[in-house]
Specification:
heterodimer; A: 306 residues; mainly alpha; 79% helix; 0% strand; B: 293 residues; 11 helices
């Protein structure tokens, strides 16, 4: 297990380097002087000069990249051109909000998606199956931000049960979580259904049935357990979609998270902030994929010994 | 006798499997519904000037925010412009985006995927590390990052979303090529000294078309969703161009009192994406039954 863990940890190093390379060149692909870009349009020539020296922008490119990595390791992502605060500080303030939203949404999505997929697979081509299939198609095709607006009109404006936006109590969390989960739940249900169908046709399921085991035991212990790997994969991959969806959901519900921060930074051309927040999103996604890999090893011990 | 059989067999097999696919596709009700929606959608896009007379972007402040009526079938927006007219003209924009985005994805993704899968070795390694790098970011965020570099507007929306999809096409095509590359007919072509380029385009490409076509249909749906998302955030297609996402973005300020402004553009996006997804699912069931979701 420790070997497996080490191997996986080592494998993310090139990915991390890739992320930093991409972000490093992102700023340099912009037209104009990177120092000016980082300092913002309003900065005085003296400020631009300070940034140029600070960031080593007068050095050759490979030294610039090395010092970029060095600063990253010291959690120095530069300063926001808009607020003049350190980027890491702004990200730190918003990251928990996005994480809370994402965790709620993914929990909600699993809680509905996996049972729905299992039920659909147990009774294929029944009305439940069609209902699940149609509902997940709708979920995949619906723009999250529109669903958010519709939920807001329904539950916050007309019924007035829940707040329309902002952050504070658990009530503020309900509509954004449902909105964000809607997209992911569909993928999870579809994947669960098709994997369960495959597993239910296996010989060991027939054996379990012929032994006279209860159907519930067969479905949960024999079938679902074996269908879990692809399901976990999808949940992990969907986390990326979720982060993208978070940008939209946070905008709809005025949720002060990282997604909203990126959009505001793009609108304000605050490139240090864009770079920093996209980096954090990339790290987060890589981390989740690592956790998914480790989860495989827990679910299926064979993987550990590969 | 023997050689003759070998000559005819593969082509017959391909023919029969693809005609079986068509038969399956026609029987698939979901795909049929998707196809009909898609035709209506394309009809709206092509026929917008006939279906709606006048300029969809010309403001008429006297009629601002009026609810649906006989004159304004779906009501008007905050500048008094017909929402129906803007949705009809918006279908042109979204269709253009869908085709453009998938075009960018195919033009870059398919050849690179073919090369990566066919040649393998160092070329493959370098290309795959590059796609790893791009896939380290969730798709929509990659598009956001590219918009941040390129700037807002229709063309940049297409390029950004298109580029963000390229790694997916590379992966898909490469994976299929790895399987097809080992087939006997490829080996035979190589044995008689056929040039690589000929093998790739004449023997391999036709046999990896099915998943590409499926991905194209689904990709168009995703492209519309992404573009509408960017428009909604205010960093995609800019007003006064009638783009569905940006219509929703500006409707946000008025939706409390006038829900119709925010309702209809969303339904348009939903139906357009749904039609591509239905068709894509049907195509997959018919031509590419091995893949799962």
């Amino acid at each position: 297990m420790i070997n497996f863990l080490l191997k996986r940890l080592l494998a993310i190093i090139p990915v991390l380097l890739g992320i930093t390379l991409l972000l490093f060149f992102m700023l340099r692909m912009l037209p104009g002087d990177p120092a000016q870009v980082l300092a913002g349009q309003m900065a005085s020539p003296a400020d631009v000069e300070i940034i140029r020296v600070q960031m080593g922008l007068d050095q050759p490119i490979h030294i610039q990249y090395a010092s970029f990595l060095n600063r990253l390791l010291h959690l120095d992502l530069g300063r926001s051109a808009r607020t003049q605060n350190p980027v890491i500080q702004e990200i730190w303030a918003r990251l928990p909000n996005t994480l809370v939203l994402a965790v709620c949404a993914i929990t909600l999505a699993c809680a509905f998606g996996i049972p729905a997929g299992v039920i659909a697979a147990v009774r294929p081509y029944s009305w439940v199956d069609y209902l699940v299939t149609i509902a997940s198609l709708f979920g995949i095709s619906m723009p999250v931000f529109w669903l958010g607006i519709m939920l807001m009109i329904g539950f916050a404006v007309i019924l007035q049960w829940l707040p329309a936006g902002g952050i504070g109590t658990w009530k503020h969390l309900v509509l954004p979580s449902i909105t964000l989960a809607s997209f992911v739940v569909a993928f999870i249900a579809r994947m669960t259904r098709s994997c369960m169908l495959e597993v239910l046709a296996q010989d060991y399921v027939t054996t379990a049935r012929s032994k006279g085991l209860k159907e519930n035991v067969i479905i949960i212990k024999h079938a679902l357990k074996n269908a879990l790997i692809p399901i976990i994969t999808v949940v992990g991959l969907q986390f990326g979609l979720l982060l993208g969806g978070a940008v939209l959901t946070e905008t709809v519900f005025a949720w002060p998270g990282l997604g909203r921060l990126i959009v505001d930074s793009i609108l304000a051309r605050d490139y240090a902030m864009i770079q920093g927040s996209i980096l954090i999103f990339g790290l987060l996604y890589t981390l989740v994929n690592l956790v998914v890999d480790l989860a495989y090893a827990f679910v299926d011990p064979r993987i550990r010994y590969e | 006798m023997n050689t003759k059989k070998n000559e005819t067999d593969p082509s017959e097999e391909i023919k029969s499997s693809s005609s079986r696919g068509w038969a399956k596709l026609k029987r698939n009700k979901a795909a049929l519904v998707g196809g009909i929606f898609l035709l209506i959608y394309i009809g709206c896009a092509l026929g917008a000037p006939v279906l709606f007379r006048g300029d969809p972007s010309a403001p008429n402040l006297m009629a601002s925010l009026s609810p649906p009526s006989a004159k304004y079938f779906l009501g008007t927006d905050e500048l008094g412009r017909s929402i129906l007219g803007r949705i009809l003209y918006g279908s042109r924009i979204s269709l253009m985006i869908a085709v453009g985005v998938v075009g960018v994805g195919l033009i870059f993704g398919v050849p690179v995927g073919l090369i990566s899968g066919y040649y393998g070795g160092k070329t493959d390694f370098i290309i795959q590390r590059f796609t790893d790098m791009m896939l380290a970011f969730p798709g929509f965020l990659l598009a956001l990052a590219l918009v941040a570099i390129l700037g807002v507007g229709l063309n940049n929306t297409v390029i950004s979303i298109g580029i963000s999809m390229v790694p997916l096409y590379i992966r898909l095509v490469r994976g299929c090529v790895l399987i097809v590359r080992e087939e006997v007919y490829v080996e035979a072509a190589r044995a008689i000294g056929t040039k690589d380029r000929h093998i790739i385009f004449r023997h391999i490409l036709p046999n990896v078309m099915a998943p590409i076509i499926v991905q194209t249909s689904l990709g168009m749906g995703t492209a519309i969703l992404f573009a509408a998302g960017l428009g909604f955030l205010g960093i995609g297609v800019q007003p006064p161009t009638p783009e569905w996402g940006s219509m929703l973005g500006s409707a946000r300020a008025y939706m409390m009192g006038k829900p119709h402004v925010a309702t209809f553009p969303g339904i348009a996006i939903f139906l357009a994406v749904l039609s591509f997804n239905l068709l894509g699912d049907g195509l997959r069931d018919a031509f590419d039954p091995r893949s799962k979701i």
